[in-house]
Amino acid sequence: MRNVRFLVVDDCTTVRNVVRNIIKTRLGSEQVMMAADGKQALQILKSKPVDIIISDWQMPEINGEELLYEVRNSAKFKDIPFIMMTSNGERDFVITAIQNGVSHFVVKPFRADKLEAAVNKSWNSASKRDSVRHSALPSHAMRIIASDALLEAKVHNISHTGMQVYTNYVDALKLYKLTEFNLSFDNFDGTHALSLSPLYGTIVRIEANDGPEQDCLLGVRFELEKCSEQVQRNLDKLMKRLNNVVPDIVDNS
């Protein structure tokens, strides 16, 4: 987990340092940001990318419960694994933490292997969720804007982090170039339309296609930080519907 970016939130300097040392020695990551309370944590989240949050429950300013609420109700941050630390091991805390969407929790004082296990479980669950690709989409329209080219396309499969798209090959399609995609569903839920436009992504693969679809298959990695919050919310809405309704799920991890 060398490239995983951690945010450790605790009002106790000693606890923050202990957690940072566990992350470095047992998980191999040097990318550890630290905050003394939830208010500082939110400032860091808004300015720097974070992959996993490890937070205390009882803190001044904004406590762990309030921070968890803010994270889970943000379109940008809501899927970040959130591990809660607490000295309260009573049943009421566990229920509250689960209801608020905590990924895992550890009770102080904890051993290094317990925190390591919680991090690994949270990270593996998030990675598995993001790798699930759905290939049976509702009827949709897809257009690609690449330089001066406007291309019709069809989504082959899609996940939280990217998609594969059939389209006609033109020279304007470039590897590792930020590209605009416009995806729309006229009849998303039987009544309402749904639009993911503009949806930005980087083309990471271009393959010739021998099947009946258009003549190439694009692998696209989403660049969600460049998309509007509305597009991110609509992508979440799409994935939630596919997770709940569509049985045709392919895990390409």
Automatic annotation (TrEMBL):
Pfam families per the UniProt record, alphabetical: PilZ, Response_reg
Gene3D superfamilies associated with the record: 3.40.50.2300
Domain Response regulatory, residue spans: 5-123
GO molecular function: cyclic-di-GMP binding
SMART domains registered for this protein in UniProt: REC
Keywords carried by this UniProt record: Phosphoprotein
GO BP terms, alphabetized: phosphorelay signal transduction system
Annotated positions of the 4-aspartylphosphate modification: D56
Protein name stated in the entry: Response regulatory domain-containing protein
Organism field: Pseudoalteromonas rubra
